[in-house]
Amino acid sequence: MILDLFAGPGGWSHALAVLGARDVGLEWDTWACKTRAAAGQLTLQTDVAVYPTAPFVGRVSGLIASPPCQAWSMAGKRLGLLDQPLVHQAVADLARGRDTRQSLLASCKDPRSLLAAEPMRYLHALHTAGQPEWVAMEEVPDVLPLWRQYAAILRGWDFSVWTGLLNAADFGVPQTRKRAILLASRVRTAEPPAPTHARIAEPESLFGAGRARWVSMAQALGWGATDRPTPTVCAGGGPGGGPEPFPSGARKTLTDARDRGTWTPHPPGTPPQPRTRATADGNPTRPQEQGSGPAQPAGAGPAWVWSLRSNSQANATTRPATDPAGTLFFGHRANECLWVASPAAPGPAAGGKGEAPVPDPIRITAREAGLLQTFPGTYPWAGNKGQQFGQIGNAVPPLLAGHLLAPHLQVPLDPDDFSLAA
C-alpha cells in the first residue's frame, strides 16, 4: 500500500487517483475525513502520533507525509522554530528506535511542533522490513533543515534522497506557494521534477523544452466564460451561525469566535462581482472578459481590475487576477482572502461626483480557493466555511503532488488530467 500520514482532505490522494493509484490516509480531523469519504478515498480516522506502526510493517511501498504546518507557518506564531531543537532530538531518537516523544513534548512551546517528527517513527518501523520503496514529504520552507536531517538518516539506510524548496507556480499551480520537499527512493535516483512553467515564458531551445508562463488566477478560474450575475449575500458563520474552527492538525479541538462578516458566494467559473451599484448614468456595472473583473459600460466611468489579497495581515500579498495567487492560508477566521478592486487605468480618484464608487471587497469562495490549489471545481468539501477553508489552506496542491509522485509510480504525468475548472 501507499501510506499517507496527515492525509488531510486529499491533495496527495487526488493526485494518486489521477495517476491511477490510491493510498490509505491517516487523518485526525473529522471534516477532512468526511471530505475524503465523499471523494472516495480510503481513510483511517486517528491521531498519527498514537496509531501503532505494526499493522503496516511489510505492507508499504510508498510513504507520504505532510505534517501540520501551523506551528511553523508564517501565518502563525511560528513557535515551531523555538521547538526545533526538540524536534531534531525526537527524530534522532526515533531513528535509533528510542521513543522520547512524551518527555520532549512536555518542553515544547507548541505541541504540534513534534508532529514533524512522526514520519520517522513510521520510517524506522518500516525500515526493519526493507521498506518503503520511496518517500515523499512536504512542509513549509522553515522545515527544510529538518528534512535535511531526515535525508542524512535515510541515506544511511541506502536511500537516494533529494531535499530542497520548490515553488508550486513552476509546476502549473496558479499560486506561488513555496514548500520544503523531501524525495527519497531505494530503487532510483531521487531528484526534483523538471519545472514546466516560469514567471516569463521560455521558448523551446537547443538546451531543452520551453516553459509556459505561470498560470494566472483568471486562467484557473475560467473567468470570462459565462455571464456573471450579482451574487447573493447571506450571514456569516457556520450552518446556523455556528462557530468557525481553526484549521486541523492540533491534538485537541480548537475553536474561536464566529466569523461576523458577510459571505458572498459566486456561481461556478465566475469572478467576483460587486454588490449592486449604479454608475453615473444609472446603468449597472458589467464584467470585463478574461478575469479582469467587473467593468463599466462605455462612457459610464472607470473600469475595475480585481486583485486577490491573500490574508488579513498587514503585509498580505495582493496580486492581480492576471498573476498567480500568493500562498493561500487561513487562520482563525473562516475566510480572510478578499477580492479587491482598483481602477483599470490611472486617473481621478473614483467615488467623486458623477463617478462610480469603488466596489466593496468580496470574499473568495471555497470553490475558488480549491481551484487555486488545483482541486477540481466539483471537489466535495465537507463542513462549514471555516472547516472547508481550513482544509483547503492546509492541503498539498494535487498538481504539485502529481509531479512529485509520477516518477515513483513510473507513470507519465499529463497536466491536462488535472482539469482546474472541471
Low-confidence stretches: 224-301
Per DSSP, the total helix count is 10
Q: Nearest-angstrom radius of gyration? A: 23 Å
Largest sheet features: 7 strands, mixed
CATH superfamily of the domain at 2-212 and 393-417: Vaccinia Virus protein VP39
The CATH topology of the domain at 2-212 and 393-417 is: Rossmann fold
The CATH class designation of the domain at 2-212 and 393-417 is Alpha Beta
Q: Looking at the structure, what is the overall shape?
A: globular
Count the E strands.
17
Helix percentage: 10-25%
Which architecture name of the domain at 2-212 and 393-417 does CATH use? 3-Layer(aba) Sandwich
Mean pLDDT, rounded to whole units? Answer: 79
Distance, first to last CA: 29 Å
Order of helices and strands: EHEHEEHHHEHEEEEHEEEEEEEEHHH
Can you describe this structure?
It is built from 10 helices and 17 strands. The protein is an alpha/beta fold. The protein has a domain of 236 residues: 3-Layer(aba) Sandwich (Rossmann fold). The strands form 5 sheets. A 7-stranded mixed sheet has the order 3-2-1-4-5-7-6, sandwiched between helices. Strands 15-14-16-17 form a 4-stranded antiparallel sheet, with no helix packed on it. It has a two-stranded parallel sheet with strand order 8-9. It is globular.
Note the topology.
Elements: E1 2-5, H1 11-18, E2 24-27, H2 30-38, E3 42-45, E4 62-65, H3 79-95, H4 101-105, H5 118-127, E5 134-139, H6 144-156, E6 160-167, E7 178-185, E8 197-198, E9 212-213, H7 217-221, E10 234-235, E11 262-263, E12 286-287, E13 294-295, E14 304-309, E15 318-320, E16 338-343, E17 362-363, H8 366-372, H9 385-394, H10 398-409
Parallel strand pairs: 1-2, 1-4, 2-3, 4-5, 8-9
Antiparallel strand pairs: 5-7, 6-7, 10-11, 12-13, 14-15, 14-16, 16-17
Helix pairs in contact: 1-10, 3-6
